[in-house]
Amino acid sequence: EGSSSTLSDPTKDKLLGGLLSPQFDASSCLSRYQSASYRKASPHPPSPYLLQRLRSYEALHRRCAPGTELYRKSVEQLKSNKRTAPMECNYIVWIPHYGLGNRIVSLVSSFFFALLNSRVLLVHVPAELADLFCEPFPEASWVLPSDFPIKNLEKFDSDSPQSYGNMLRNKVIDNGMRFSANATLPAYAYLHLPWYYKEWDKVFFCEDGQQMLRKFPWLLLKSDHYFVPALFLVEEYEAELRRLFPERTTVFHHLVRYLIHPSNTVWGHVTRYYSANLAKADERIGIQVRNLKQEPVPFEFLLGQIVNCSVHERILPSILSAQKKPRAPVSGAKVKAVFITSLDSRYSERVRDMYKEHPTATGELVRVYQASHEVEQRTEERQHNAKALAEMVLLSFSDVLVTTACSTFGYVAQGLSGVRPLVLMKPWKSSLPCRWAESAEPCFLIPPRGVCDKHSGFDKGMAKHVRQCEDENEGIKLF
Ligand code: GDP
User: What is its main location (predicted)?
Assistant: First the structure.
């Protein structure tokens, strides 16, 4: 399927510079080894040290995965709720929260945390996430088994007594315990990191918090954000991170391509849509439009932003007004395929009409596509999520990307592609209608500020590793 010129290209590096293990059965997850042929080769090779750490992570995951003796022992210990000796296998259980984009950026952040701390990442897969993603680790599963002794993981929230923040506040534990060999600790801690997290929860991002948490063989984590940038500010991790990611702005690009592979069902939707609509174009342009119900941008205003920014930045050709004489149609005119994603169908209809009713100044032909218009977000529905994932992946096949500020849906597409997007700004946050992002890195939109000791790495590291995001003044982003 797809255009044969790209798909049969033997120079395409299907293992993404060694990021992916060759040890999988390709048919169980077609997207894993086929994705490379739908995208331009990444100009950012992963570091040899990252590759080495991924391979040793995979070995650890195999030793500790559900079904192994070591997993059984760890679960026994969790059930017995007794003081825990240092264990060979330590886990982080990811709990999904909010929309699919939010889930993917927080899942990638959790894997980053697992990699840094040699913890095994297990994911809680509720029905609405079933059959969306392939297993990312060879010969072992990352799915949390249904007989896991802690139930109702979704219920953990700000007031859970087991949260790290509440345990600190209520003095059940204190970070000084990190020095004590025989402190009595609860069997697990819940890390509460969604956007509405509180001061005590934010201690997670401080040096002593990170050290203290190593005492827990089991951690449960709920977040809806890309929290990686804040971990770059923990001094203890600096040297290791420099080796893992000598090019800091590629962290998400590498890790999302390593971890997130659409299932064969979703990949079927992606490749069929691509072959039928996008494959033959000379250039592919992805435009991700996200207009939030809670803080809407008026339709005509946002449409104007999309068109004016795209034309001004020469992503889309300008049109000739009715009075001007169009060029004679040329055979072999270049075709630009514009793939628009939105819950609303009106943006693509209007852009399509514009190019139907007017010739372009360049003589190029513009074709406009939209795969779905779901009207409303319905994260609890599996089919709805499958469409969202397929569209993120289709966007990531674009040569040029236009995304909406502060949308994790767009962050996933830009990370998978490695393309630096043109960002449509929120009119109340910026005087510019759009800005080119400096990299494909997402923004950590709600970073913890002023929680860690002023003398710790957090505040010093700010200037060295992160800066203000283009799309959110309060957010931080690796640079
Ligand atoms: P964010 O809210 O923009 O950060 O992105 P999320 O992905 O976390 O949440 C938005 C959710 O709304 C998506 O996961 C989809 O369920 C739905 N949604 C929003 N925009 C689109 C779209 O363009 N296409 C599809 N299929 N779904 C969308």
Answer: Golgi
* Consecutive 10-residue averages of pLDDT for the chain (479 residues): 45 90 97 97 96 98 98 94 76 98 98 98 97 98 97 97 97 90 87 97 96 96 98 95 98 98 98 98 98 96 98 97 68 94 98 97 97 96 97 98 98 98 97 97 95 64 85 96
**For atom 25 of ligand 1, which residue has the closest CA?**
388
**Residue from 476, 407, 347 nearest 99 by CA:** 407
What pLDDT sits at residue 3? 43
User: Atom 5 in ligand 1: which residue has the minimum CA distance?
Assistant: 409
Q: What is the ipTM of this complex?
A: 0.99
**What is the number of the ligand 1 atom nearest to the C-alpha of 387?**
26
Q: For residue 144, how many other CB atoms are within 10 A of its CB?
A: 20
Rg of the chain, C-alpha, whole Å? 23
Q: Specify the residue with its C-alpha closest to ligand 1, atom 9.
A: 99
Q: State which ligand 1 atom lies nearest to the alpha carbon of 385.
A: 16
Residue pair 134/146 in contact by the 8 Å Cβ criterion: no
Cα–Cα distance for residue pair 103/416, rounded to 1 Å: 15
**Mutation to probe ligand 1, out of 409, 411, 424, 426 (largest number of atoms < 8 A from CB):** 409
Question: Which residue's CA is the closest to the ligand 1 atom numbered 27?
Answer: 388
Three-state secondary-structure class, residue 232: coil
Q: Spell out the domains of the chain, with CATH numbers in brackets.
A: 48-259 (no CATH), 264-478 (3.40.50.11350)
Distance (Å) from CA 111 to ligand 1 centroid: 22
pTM for this one?
A: 0.96
What per-residue confidence (pLDDT) applies to 6? 45
Pairing of strands 400-404, 283-288: parallel
CB 388 near ligand 1, within 6 Å: yes
Give me the amino acid identity at 134.
Answer: C
* Residue-by-residue DSSP string for 407-469: -HHHHHHHHHHT--PEEEPPTTT-SSSEEE-SSSPPPBSS---S-S-TTSHHHHHHHHHEEE-
Q: Residue count of the chain, please give it.
A: 479
